[in-house]
C-alpha cells in the first residue's frame, strides 16, 4: 500500500468541523486513508457516523477544515471552485442511491449529459454514450425514458453516466439502497466487472453484506476510521 503524497488517493488527518452556535461540531476527527489505483474499497458505517461528510470531501463537494487530500497527484485543498468543478467533472464518476436520471431525457441523453457539460461534440457524445450503455447491458434500451425501465436498469444507466467521462475514480453512495435484493446483487456483479477492468471504486454503505463485495473494507464510526482487513 502506497502511503506518500504521490499516492493515487491519499488522505492524512482530515478534520471537518461545523459551527453550532458558539461551539463547533467535529464530524470527522482525523481521517487518514490511502487507496491504490485500481482498488475496490468499501467504507462501512451507520447513520450519523460521518460517512456522508467523508463522501462529500472525497467527491470534492466540500472541503475539509484541515488535513491533506491528494487525488491523482493534485492537492485538493489548494484548488479553487472552478478547479474543483473540473475534478468533479473529469476525475470522479458519481453513483447515488437513487439514479437521479432526468425524466424528460432518454437513456442516451442522460448518459451524454456529463459530456455535454465537458463540451464534447454531439457525434462523439452519442458514440460514447452508446458504448457505455452497451457495457452495462442496456444496448437495447438506448431511447427508453426512465419511467419505461426498471429501478435496476435505471441504476445501470446511472453507472453508464458515471463511466462515460472515463473518470479515474468511481464514488458510489449506497448504490443498492433503493433496490430489491436480487437487483442489488446484479449491480454488485457489475461493480465486480468494472473492478476487474481496472476501475478504482469507493463504495459507501451501511450494509455489511454490500460492503463485503469490495476487496477491502474500512469502518467509520463517530468520525474515526479503522481498517477491517482485506477480503479475498
Summarize the structure.
By secondary structure, the chain is an alpha/beta fold. It is built from seven helices and ten strands.
Please describe what this structure looks like:
It is globular, with a radius of gyration of 18 Å. 33% of the residues lie in helices and 28% in strands. The mean pLDDT is 91. It is α/β, with parallel strands linked by helices. α3 (107-117) packs parallel to α5 and α5 runs parallel beside α6 (181-196). β1 (9-20) and β2 (23-35) form a beta hairpin.
Summarize the topology.
Elements: E1 9-20, E2 23-35, E3 40-44, H1 51-58, E4 66-71, E5 74-75, H2 81-90, E6 92-95, H3 107-117, H4 122-135, H5 151-163, E7 169-173, H6 181-196, E8 201-205, H7 208-211, E9 216-221, E10 224-230
Helix pairs in contact: 3-4, 3-5, 4-5, 5-6
> Strand order across the biggest sheet?
6-7-8-3-9-10
Low-confidence stretches: none
Strand content: 25-35%
Describe the main β-sheet briefly.
Answer: 6 strands, mixed
Mean pLDDT: 91
Radius of gyration: 18 Å
Order of helices and strands: EEEHEEHEHHHEHEHEE
Determine the number of helices (DSSP H or I, runs of at least 4 residues): 7
